[in-house]
Amino acid sequence: MQKAGFVYVMTTLANSVLYIGVTSNLSQRVWQHRTKYYPNCFTAKYNCVKLVYYYRFDSIGDAIAGEKRLKDRHRAFKIDLIKKRNPNWQDLWEEINE
């Protein structure tokens, strides 16, 4: 059985910078971004600490492909995608840890 994967979007408190990532452990990875566990990474430098979107795939391979597709899209497409699922751009951290 393959491990599931997630594509996710982190942003700043002002929703000005978007970071798209992929992981097999969403809660752990978002915690790493929020705590700046890796201080030299993009999310730490730009203070992307708010999870505003995520999507679960059945396999990590599918998630990686999904991440590549999303990264190829224009910013406006990404914003529309976030707004459809999370119109108020709320931090979804609590939701993924229920």
UniProtKB/TrEMBL annotation:
Residues 3-80 form the GIY-YIG domain. CDD domains: GIY-YIG_unchar_3. The keyword Cell membrane does not apply. SUPFAM superfamilies: GIY-YIG endonuclease. It comes from the Bacteria. Keywords: Membrane, Transmembrane, Transmembrane helix. The chain crosses the membrane at residues 6-26. Belongs to the UPF0213 family. PANTHER family: BSL5627 PROTEIN, UPF0213 PROTEIN YHBQ. This is GIY-YIG nuclease family protein. It comes from Taibaiella soli.
